[in-house]
Amino acid sequence: MNSNKNIFCLFFAFLCTVASVNAQELLTIEDAVKIALDNNFEIKIASNNLQISENNNTIGNAGMLPIAKASVVDNNSIENTSQTRQDGTSIALDNAKNNNLNYGVGLDWTVFDGLRMFARAEQLEELKKLGKNELKRTVLLKIGQVNLNYYDLVQQQQQLTAIDSSISISKERLQLAKNRFSIGKASKLEVLNAQVDLNTDQVALLRQKETYQNTKILLNQILARDANTPFTVVDALKVNAQLKYDELLNLSQKQNPALQAQIINNRIAELQLKQVKGNRYPILTLNSGYNFADSKSSLGFTSQANSKGLNYGFTASMTIFDGFNQNRNEKNAKIEVDNALISLEQQNQFLIAQLAINYQTYLTNIDLISLEANNEAIARQNLDITMDKFKIGTITTLEFRTAQLNHVNAKLRYSNAQFQAKLSEIALKELTGTINF
């Protein structure tokens, strides 16, 4: 009976373990990017702002279409009125009622305003492009953050594996020390030292697990989903070691969002100057309407009158003198154009410098990957030899611990070298606007 009960408990524990593993979805970088594009709040806001720019980009908003208005005016009065006529007779009436009703539709159409409406239409188009560019910049930034946090998790997962392997070795060492102590070939001090080193490794594992879980929470936050959503990441970190500086520089000149934004802002400043200059020209507006009028009066020669009909005409106006404000506005608009050109040049120089710095860091990190991989292999070989010698008692526990730590540190440095190289790759792709999303 007890045997069956134990089998049932083991089977139940196995099912719980399987359920726990299945609950941990394997989140690939492609899945993470897709979730961020669908959910991230800042991307949604940038997308909505682009929609506003697209809605504003109409010829009506540029002032090219006529404006039609309907109006109704109804005036009523009750007055005590007296009148004296030319022939000397007079008439008076208390509480005399008067009513005037006017209604109709009118049309105003500005057909010429110094070409400002056309400049405004071009400006609205540039603002839409700026909105698209801002959306792209936000997407690149957020996808860069997704990549950074994702590959940080990959690195931390590798570090957890390295520490786990170190704990296994420390446990084996402790067991060997206990066995040797039990047969009188080792002192109690050797056992205590092995126990302390094992405890140290376990503390390091707990700290690393804490960092790992916190980074998972941060990634879930960027993905705009429940912070405690369970998932795992891939266990390998691939770095593109074939990036070329000349190709990156060419791409950055064409696709860098910050540089493209400055180019668009320069064009917007030029169109603003064009609109300001348009104020020097006359404005011609066509107007037309169809109106109805009905009036009633309790006193006077006419007790009731009605009229209806079409009216049309045009209005032309031109500012002759405005206190030299036009000259001032034009000077300021030209300065804004100069500022936009300066900002464009500054952004371009900054981009080239950042690209050069990040590319040099990228090359260094690529070299470090090979070096640290070689160091890790040597440290592994050294640990294997040291382990064999420790088992037969030809080396001290201090020498063994040194070899063990060297191996763990070599694995951590190798993992970190891969991560740093990946960060350099991501930074270069952000600058060139080529992160795949």
Descriptive notes:
The protein is built from nine helices and six strands; from the N terminus they run H-E-H-H-E-E-H-H-E-H-H-E-E-H-H. The chain has two domains: 23-57 and 114-282 and 325-432, Outer membrane efflux proteins (OEP) (Up-down Bundle), CATH 1.20.1600; 66-112 and 283-317. Helix 2 crosses helix 4, helix 4 (116-182) packs antiparallel against helix 5 (188-222) and helix 8 packs antiparallel against helix 9 (397-432). The chain is elongated. Mean pLDDT is 88; it is low at 1-22. It is α+β, with helices and mostly antiparallel strands and 437 residues long. 24% of the residues are buried.
Q: Assign the CATH class of the largest domain.
A: Mainly Alpha
Q: What does the radius of gyration come to?
A: 40 Å
Helix content: 55-70%
Low-confidence stretches: 1-22
Structural class: alpha+beta
Order of helices and strands: HEHHEEHHEHHEEHH
Number of domains: 2
| SS strand fraction | 15-25%
Distance between the termini: 59 Å
Query: Any idea what the CATH architecture of the largest domain is?
Result: Up-down Bundle
By CATH, the superfamily of the largest domain comes out as Outer membrane efflux proteins (OEP)
Q: Give the CA-based shape.
A: elongated
> Which topology of the largest domain does CATH recognise?
Outer membrane efflux proteins (OEP)
How many strand units?
Answer: 6
Main sheet characteristics: 4 strands, antiparallel
Number of helices: 9
- With strands numbered from the N-terminus, the spatial order across the biggest sheet is 2-3-5-6
